[in-house]
Amino acid sequence: MRFTYVTLFQNLIEGYFQDSILRRAQDKELFEVDYLNPREFSTNRHQKVDDTAVGGGAGMVMTPQPLFDTLRELKARGDVYIIFPTPVGKPFVQNDAKRLAKKKHIAFVSGRYEGIDERVIETFADELFSIGDYILTGGELPSLVMSDAILRNVEGVLGNSDSLAMESFETPLLEAPSFGKPPLYEGSSAPSEYLKGNHSRISALKSALSECKTKFFRPEQLLQHQKRTSYEK
Ligand code: ADE
User: Whole-model pTM?
Assistant: First the structure.
């Protein structure tokens, strides 16, 4: 799998891939990363990539020419699925991460300033995604958030595929709480059932705790789960 980041700020992205699981996955050649900077495609003599908006309004907009030329060049190199992170996109969820993990090449186009000329989006976007109802200063963080969530679903990236199957959002309920060693820390103990080693009782307790946690943090998700399971009965 390949990720291309179309960004004015490559430095903001690079660091994330230099350590930990994603570094190892790159070393194992499970995915590759590259970058395109629209500034390098700007025909303006000062390499400008933004301007005031047509029709007025606050802030600067990324103009069409540098992005059109960047994305044409990208598409000329081969088949690529193009994603624009934007607060007006549809919410990015775990199912999107799983679905997109099957693509060979994804590009993320990061806007800065007040946004990207709509004609660029209309011409090149395969999908628009928001990572939450708040406004960030650019698309770099959302691109990284989505990349990380996608890569966890690429075969071989996580050492142990069990850890993926049991995660929150892989099942209808949130994941049960986990406890690291030692079992007793500063007077606070892991649940005693976890310590006794009876796996069916541990698993029953984990299901009950998952349900409690979902009820507290995501009540609407628990209701959906209960509706679904009562239909199945
Ligand atoms: N760009 C700025 N804010 C964003 C958000 N919440 N999601 C995706 N892209 C964005």
Answer: 0.92
